[in-house]
Amino acid sequence: MKKIALILFSIFLLIMGGCSNNSASSNVGANKNSESEKGLTGVQVSKEPIDLKIHLHHFDGQVIFNDDWPTFKKAAELTNVNLKGVAPKTSTDSQEAFNLMIASGEIPDLVHGTKADLTKYGKEGAFLPLDELIEKHAPNIKKYLEEMEGLEEFATASDGNLYFVPFIADGKAQKGWFVRQDWLDKLGLKIPQTSEETYEVLKAFKEKDPNGNGKQDEIPYFSRIPESLGDLTILWGARNDLYLDGDKVQFGPYEEKYGTALSGLAKWYEEKLIDPEIFTRGAKARDILLGNNQGGMTHDWFGSTAGYNNLLKDQVEGFKFETFAPPQNTEGEKVEPTVRDPYGDKAGIAIGYSTEDPVKAIKYLDFFYTEEGRRLMNYGVEGETYDLVDGKPVFKEEILSSPDVPTTLHEYGAQTLFSYHQDFEYEKQWLNPIALKGIEEYTANNYFAEPLPPLTFTEEEEKKIIEIAADLKTYRDEMMQKWVMGAEEIDYEKFKNQLKNLGVEEYIELHQKAYNRSMEK
């Protein structure tokens, strides 16, 4: 289906010919009425109600635009713009749904997608360049682009144009370490402070029957995301990807300590301190292993992981899953390799090339960057999902008492990956106190590794980076699995030579050049 979609899109481009850019630029000022409407009140986009079509389909069909979402109905009341979803509700493959929409040539007014897709097809004519529209008609988006560090660099395509308005995350902490405090207490152990102490705790979990069932069935370390095993390389001072060392861009797997880290993880796996099914157990690992009173330690998202304390309090006697600071690694540092990147979701909304009124479309998107629009997307509808208390939105008890607050808010259309700036205060209201404690500790001590800033590449650089990155990631993940599971003897020099053959040095150099350019601005 994806191959067919790409073939059809090629035909679509031929039909459009070379006129797409002309139509894009002429559309910017096409509807003079939209620029000269008088008598608009508040955040109205149009005097008369209008409809815009939207393709919004993500998380493989878990979220598809619903015409009845109260959040967007309220937005329609305020702006006079009513959205109509056109993404197929039966599809369970978001990428395929996007590809087929593109291939059809029938691009709706608004399209949700990844940065990669929206910029790729924007450059090919499917979406409008937004720079001039934002400059003239979207003061709130413009303000964000001017004032929020790295936003413009992130959103700008290699041809110098902006083709989408991004979703911006809020907050800093996302993942942290969790350990069964009730198991530590039973075995007379303390929270591990170093990587060596972490090993000793996991070993005790394996050998000393902390769940008390008389069997050696404990899984000391587990993860629901196999790739996140790479996060643990930090315990040996290594990194699993690109990172910034001062002003120098580095690729962690291309450094000797990465081989040391993989040797350490392989030792842990051989001793059954790491889940033997870590590469195959899948997304339900936390549910299964914690629910069966078998899981001892993990490194995962604060909010959802701390929530198991409530979920399992009546199922597992004494259950207590506590956060703890990153263990000091072999280089004497406490480092959390993950940090919530405001642009990490790399998604947003583009405007289709054939929309009849791009000015109204960009004004509608600009609404969600106002204080009122941002609150609507973060908290839902006042009186339905929250109340204003001393000027601040406070969720109603029926929202806070729901088993999964984000999912409940999605049912109202709030907290959807649209284009707006998230507000971390929304998350604080429903987070488990254990999660809040962990987030505050990690933030106060700034354990986070410095991330690479958003970088802008030339079209040629971008194409090369995408090509090299795919090969590097595939090879890195393949060898990590083989080495950790003992399927192949660790030969780091051979591994390093293959990375070199795959273009790792050019990959680093391209990022270094882009970083240097960003520092010169």
Automatic annotation (TrEMBL):
Ranges in a coiled coil: none
Signal peptide: 1-24
Keywords of the record: Cell membrane, Lipoprotein, Membrane, Palmitate, Signal
The keyword Cell membrane belongs to this UniProt entry's keyword annotation: yes
InterPro entries: Bact_solute-bd_prot1, SBP
PANTHER family: ARABINOSE-BINDING PROTEIN-RELATED (PTHR43649), POLYGALACTURONAN_RHAMNOGALACTURONAN-BINDING PROTEIN YTCQ (PTHR43649:SF33)
Protein name: Extracellular solute-binding protein
Organism whose genome encodes this protein: Metabacillus bambusae
